[in-house]
Design a protein that fits this description.
This protein is α/β, with parallel strands linked by helices. Helix content is 39%, strand content 24%. The protein contains 8 helices and 8 strands, in the order βααβαβααβββαβαβα. Strands 1, 2, 3, 4, 5, 6, 7 and 8 form an 8-stranded mixed β-sheet that branches. A hairpin with a 2-residue loop joins strand 4 (80-87) and strand 5 (90-93). The two termini are 22 Å apart.
Length: 168
């Protein structure tokens, strides 16, 4: 399950870790958690609350050397993913409020040499529209990197899920 703390994404401080903990206590689901994950203590807390993977977006994009150092630590390698939320290929940060002027494809290439667990790619112009994920952009990213790329946003039904699971 991919769980996003939208409040945390906007404020930079996770506000809903208790929801993560409750889901983990009540279900056997593996939960991937993101939103407001901007320092090691927040990431560690999410992992302690039961997240199997933590997604970092804004801080990675704004401070790439920090992201590289984070992933160099064995406790985070393979447990931290990169969130790329983009409109027209340009990555947005801080809960989609600010445009970074960085291209998602460039960041995916840059991440390829790091022990990133996954890239979660959201075309924010389609999220919530029930028009299906942007499969074309997601597939382009997946072809550029060896990191697993997860399509996010816009899912309208089971056919979108089936298509996202199909090999390229």
């Amino acid at each position: 399950m991919h769980l996003v703390d939208l409040d945390g994404a906007k404020t930079g401080q996770p506000a809903n870790l208790h929801v993560l903990a409750e889901i983990r206590e009540r279900t056997p689901l593996k939960v991937q958690f993101g939103g407001g994950m901007r320092d090691e203590s927040q990431i560690r807390r999410a992992l302690e609350q039961g997240a199997s993977r933590v997604i970092v977006g804004t801080r990675a994009i704004e401070d790439w050397p920090w992201f590289e150092q984070l992933l160099a630590r064995s406790e985070f390698a393979g447990r931290v993913g990169l969130g790329l939320d983009a409109r027209n290929g340009v990555v947005a940060t801080k809960g989609w409020v600010e445009a970074s002027h960085l291209q998602a494809v460039d960041l995916a290439r840059r991440a390829d040499s790091l022990p990133v667990a996954a890239i979660v790619y959201t075309d924010i112009s389609r999220d919530g529209m029930l028009a299906g994920p942007n499969f074309e952009s997601t597939e382009r990213l997946a072809r550029l990197t060896k990191i697993p790329v997860i399509a996010s946003g816009g899912v309208s039904g089971i056919e979108d899920i089936k298509r996202s699971l199909a090999p390229l």
